[in-house]
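so the lab meeting is tmrw and i was supposed to have these ready like two days ago... anyway. pasting both below. for each one the top line is the aa sequence and the line under it is the structure tokens. i havent really looked at them closely yet so no promises
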Amino acid sequence: MKKLDSSLKYAFSLIVLLFLALFAATWFTVKVSLQGHEKIVDPNYYEKGLNYEKAIAAKREMHRQGYSLQFPEEKPELRLGKNKIQIQFHKQNQAVAEAKLSVKLARGATYRFDKSYGMQSVGEGLHVSQVEVPASGEWLMTFSAKHGEQMLEKVYRFVVKN
């Protein structure tokens, strides 16, 4: 039986070490990805999809009837921490009585920070809530107004800087 040359021993050792390093890196990557796993779709996506056309038609009908959700002045700036948010809910420039409003703060890329807040009516169609922004970046704020059986939603984009 012949002995292997030392250069071949060195090459085989290097191949084994590289294979072990590749295996360890793959194991670490899988471990990290499984620990930080987040769902990428809305849990109710199927039901929302079934009702998509109905929701669009209902929103158009509410707009046709003159319903609107808008900020009392210009769009506010969000900052890190607590922010006071005000929105007006009107029908043909008249305050809508007995409406239930809520606001949902969300990041587009993750569900980790999604949070919904109820809104208090302070009269004349004005509703107020306190929302907390935990991180900088782009945020989506969805206002939902329910009047009777009708529902109107409006989404605003905000960029929060440090």
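ok protien two:
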Amino acid sequence: MGNLYLRMLTLVIVFAGGYFLLCFISYLIKSANYKGSAYQQNTGFPFFKVLFDKGAYGEYLISRYLRKISPPGQFLFNVYLPKEKGETTEIDALLIHPSGIYVFESKNYSGWIFGTESQRNWTQTFPGGGRKNHFFNPILQNELHLKWLKTALADYPALPFYSYILFSNRCTLKSITLTSDRARVMNRFPVYSSVAAQSAQAGVLLNETTMKEVYDTTLYPYSQATEALKKHIEAIQTLYPRFSKGRALFRELGAPQQTFAGSSREP
């Protein structure tokens, strides 16, 4: 009997060791892929931080999926654009491309997602029942980003803009009703094919000089927010409930008021 227990213990140790070895190899491969990436160059974040931050990891994967887009463009992340009264709005990721400016709102959620283009709140549920979470309509959220982005780029009135709402591959877009082409809503995996098709259809609309001016002179400084600014924004978000923030965003869009129901996630 003692030998049987010893053999079982040995098997457990071997399997556990093999599992952790595979995890370590996977980490090394992902870390090597991350090194020198557009996300690392723009944010300066170490891979260990990104790996354990769902929001940051989702933003990084956008650039990873689009890294081979042709012709190439330039990425920016966590772009803090100025609004009125000294406030800011943050764009998760954007791509400055010869075919236009692609603005990405990243939602690294799991579960099932329900929503329509016009309603204020979308819903996240989980298979088998359980809790429901409500979050601000990401299409409307990205339109606010576009509003202030266009203000920042007022010297370039002919720039085309494309709105993309990207959800994690871990979630299912169970019922998303769109009635216009104002935004594209999808899981993260097909973003490459969608952007490639969009850019091929649009053609070359920005020359190298314009792209460089938009990136270097106008938008890049907004992606280099100080830690003091980030902490200030986090403090404001802590003081004000998420629903209140959602209502404020809705008012900023000039849309009619609707009734909130259920719990919320960060818009």
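from a quick look at the 2nd one: The longest strand covers residues 88-97. Residues 134 and 261 are 8 Å apart (CA to CA). will dig more after coffe
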